[in-house]
Amino acid sequence: MLRQCLQISLIVFINFGPAFVQRLSDERERWLLWFPVFLGVGIAVYFLLPQEPPAWLGGVLLVLSLGGAWLGRHAALGAFLGGSLVAAATGFTAIQAQSFLEEAPVLAHASGPVRVEGRLTQSVNRPGGGHILLEDVAVVRGTVVLRKPLPEGIARFSLIRLRVDTPPTFLIGERIALEAVLQPPFQPLAPGSFDFSRHAWFLGLGAVGSARGAVARVEEPVDEEGVHPLFALNRLRQKVTERILKVLPGEEGPVATALITGEMAAITPRLMEGYRDSGLAHLLSISGLHMSQVAALVFLLVRGGLALIPAIVLRYPIKKWAAGIALGATFLYLLLAGSPVPAQRSFIMTGCVLLAVLLDRVAITPRMVAWAGILVLLLAPEELIGPSFQMSFAAVAALVAAYEALRDRPASARKKASHWVPRGMLYIGGLLFGTLVAGTASAVYGIYHFNRFAVWSMVANLIAVPLTGVAVMPFALAALVLMPFGLESWALVPMGWGIWAVNQIALSVASWPGATFMFPAMPPWGLGVFTLGWAWLLIWRRSWRLWGLVPMALGLGSMALTPAPDLLVDHQGRSFAIRGNDGTLILNRGSALLQDAWRRRMGRSASAPWPGQDEGRLLCVPGLCRYQTEAGQIALVLTQQGVREEICLAKVVVSAVKIDFCPKETLVLDQTVLRQKGPHAVWLSDQGGHVESVADWQGQRPWSWWGSKEETAASSAERESGEGSHTGKGLRGEGG
């Protein structure tokens, strides 16, 4: 078989190799654009490994790739492949180093009530409660167990996040003390679902939990001049958020804070769902739209103001002055927003445009996108696997590629459109085209992460985006200018009117029939294949770029090639999700967070109550339920009362208690297996079944803990305390 494959590969290379090399050589000026792509390939390889690689591997791969690139530098194919290997090795080394540098003390298992002291770095109020983030945390009373004991003998954490009923009113940077119940970072609820433990690892977050009782100040407040710059910035964000919410207390206030300080936690679930289902969720994340609007407003105001002074406009380059001031304003906006990844990418690209004005260069080019990607991936390589990075770069890269392909046509159209009516139609057409390009490019990544597609997104964006640019963002900029004088209400009130209109658009469009379409989970390999094809289509200029459509189609088809599981079970064996023969999802119990994660994993927007529509197939007696599928029977043992010998006749036995008497041919997922490997997904067939656990999916990585002694203890403590679902529910929404 191997010999035949080699023969076929040799024949293909002999027939098509020379033409491929010639085309590769003809587009040498586009090679740089592949560097961030292969940089991402190296990062993705690190995350896909089943276990943590040796610490020396990244450096060795980088040295070997540099040597290979040097040897192949004289041939076009050798130079391209060598550069690609260097980029991939650089990405692998960067993420491996980042994982090592971010390593922090992590809680081994759930604790009882303990007293902790830490410095307040974040305080967020949200509907139904809030959370606080503490830095340099010490456990001063009580006992906790870390995965790796610290030499000084006292348990300390870099960061912990606590759910609180009412966030404290202390200033950011003050050291506080409180009682809390701590747990390790929340683990995935199913194989392939959001991994908060991995997200927490790269944040340096060692524990999460719930605060108990009052919060006390340990140290006296620090003067503004003596506070750390990072705390001073967070304190400023805190004050700005409070003043916005004081003027706009309704649903408009939280949206205003999202647009100005990047804080979205106070947005109600109803409104957030409306923004997602209408395709307007990108308006709440500070990204290219907001950065470009702020830069454009500052640029136009400064240049227009200076143009009114003849002594200045006739002697000095006011266009460059305006670009420099706009660059400074966008940088301040980036800091105030908390520097999220979309804002970082947007600032880099907006900065490139403004620098191009300063240097009299062409502003919008694919190289600008490439350099932005390189900088973000080198500074924060872990962001590659997040939805913010993937969706924002997909949209921007597609827009720039479309602009490059159609660069001369809009300019000629503007020259012909002398009247305001054709100019307005040209603007609407450009907005529609931009929405179509950006929405299409980012849709696949949204489906991968959120399993949903907003059907009426183009209509909502056509109305809401211009409204945001005219009636929201100018007043946001004015509010920041007026805030030092205590006059922010002059701008925030009319800004609230614009936000109210955008909110109504989001809620109205989300209520239309068929507003969202749910998709089953896409496998990681499908997204990777689609991305490589998408990059091939966008980067190359000649007709061979169309070859990229083949892997793109294969990537999209991976959803059909990967069926949804027939059964999902939690790590306690008490919550089940069964996919009925008619495709209906039947859930027996579980928190709202668990049910939402499982619905999205199955590609379903709703689920039937237990026993659901298949009452003839699902039969329950005290402590035991049986579900009959076309491939065999599933026995679900809930309590010791349901343990019977006949359950071993089922193809799959899932049990919340220990089962040790069934034969080997029966697939048994009992209390012991579930505690060791976490939640499971099961696929049934006539030939047998396939099982995947969270432990198998995560692998032996620094952030995974299923199968360890600490996990077993944590499962027991969580079951007894009942805190697991509550804590996870409070934190999951931020990472997802």
Briefly, what is this?
With 736 residues, the chain is of the alpha+beta class. The chain contains 26 helices and 18 strands.
Account of the 3D structure:
The protein has 736 residues and is an alpha+beta fold. α12 (341-359) crosses α13. The strands form 4 sheets. It has a 6-stranded mixed β-sheet with strand order 11-10-9-8-17-18. Strands 1-2-3-5-4 form a 5-stranded mixed beta barrel. 52% of the residues lie in helices and 15% in strands. The protein has 26 helices and 18 strands. β10, α22 and β11 (608-609) form a beta-alpha-beta unit.
* Overall morphology: globular
Strand content: 15-25%
Trace the largest sheet across and list its strands. 11-10-9-8-17-18
DSSP helical segment count:
26
Mean of residue pLDDT values: 83
Q: Return residue spans where pLDDT drops below 50 for at least 5 consecutive residues.
A: 709-736
**Backbone CA Rg:** 28 Å
Give the % helix: 40-55%
State the end-to-end distance.
44 Å
Class computed from helices, strands and strand pairing:
alpha+beta
The assembly state of the depicted protein chains is: single chain
The count of DSSP E runs of length 2 or more, i.e. the number of strands, is 18
Largest sheet: 6 strands, mixed
